[in-house]
TrEMBL record:
Residues annotated as domain Multidrug resistance protein MdtA-like barrel-sandwich hybrid: 64-196
Leader sequence segment: 1-16
Family statement drawn from the similarity comment of this UniProt entry: Belongs to the membrane fusion protein (MFP) (TC 8.A.1) family.
Residue span(s) of domain Multidrug resistance protein MdtA-like alpha-helical hairpin: 100-166
Protein name: Efflux RND transporter periplasmic adaptor subunit
Source species of the chain: Geopseudomonas aromaticivorans
The entry's keywords: Coiled coil, Signal
InterPro entries: MdtA-like_BSH (IPR058625), MdtA-like_HH (IPR058624), RND_pump_MFP (IPR006143)
Lineage of the species this protein comes from: Bacteria, Pseudomonadati, Pseudomonadota, Gammaproteobacteria, Pseudomonadales
Coiled coil: 98-156
UniProt entry tagged with the keyword Signal: yes
Amino acid sequence: MRISLLLMAACSLFLAACNDSPEPKTAAAMPPFVKTVAVLGSSEATLGLSGTVRARVESPLAFQVGGRIAKRAIDAGQSVRAGQVLFALDTRDLTQAVSAAEADLAAANAALATAEADLVRHRQLETRNFVSAQALERVQLARREAQTRRDAATARLVQARNGLGYGQLLAPAAGILIEVTGEPGQVVAAGQPVALLAQAEEREIEVYFPQGVTPPEHGEVLAADGTTLPLRLRETAGAVDPQGRTLRARYTLLERQDALVLGTVLRTRFAAQAANEASFTVPIGAIDERGQGPRVWRVSEGRAVPVAVSVLALDGETARIRGPLVADDRVVALGTHLLSDNMPVRELGR
């Protein structure tokens, strides 16, 4: 009886092992689901962008000679007047350079005096036929060389004294120091910026426009107190920024320039360029920017296709764009960073 039970258990294990085959693998992974939305045509007649308050003239400040910073007299955000001392270098080497130049000039003056005395004697001797004309000519050339050396020594002394004066960095104009990077004890090279001065002149609004949008001549900026200030275009960059694919423009403020704080980001508004340039509204999550400029992913025949667009305006939830789209085109609303060109996808239930 026990043997029969053992035989039955062995048969059961054998049959179970025969039936324990691996589950069949899926032939191919199914395309992922994506959430899509239909693009909406926009009837807005204005273009809203962010603008930054800047000074018309922003001067990087640097020493004209190299050396070690011995004194820093200012801090970032401080107002300065024209001619105010901002930094001072250790001037010991510069002082020695002036002393050396003065010694060279003294030697050059002595050599010139000797050459002039020789010339006087040779002229007297030449009139009495004691020396030849060639000897007199050599002395004249020696005197001319001594004069030239004296002029060169004088110029080097002027340069050395100028260098000693360059040991102090003075404010070239009145304004506000936006940034200060130089520190006491730091060794700087000639021309190395140690501060950035926003000169107390006109205030401007710097705006970056999407590629393909020409900056309008006029616009307005919304100040912090809710008032609007008119703008007038002053300059436009000569080329599109290769990274952001945007075009920089500077607008002059026509009113209340002193009321705006440097570096403040404000909203600007500009009239639309042309009524026939259609724009569309999509969720912000539909905008994909991965180093190739802004684009959206249109779903067509079960595949995601990238479409390059220009971003005209942004708000809390939506973006207004312009590009080769038509109303009711369906675009991917979320997870665009996971998509690749012509990738198969499945739309979620609408």
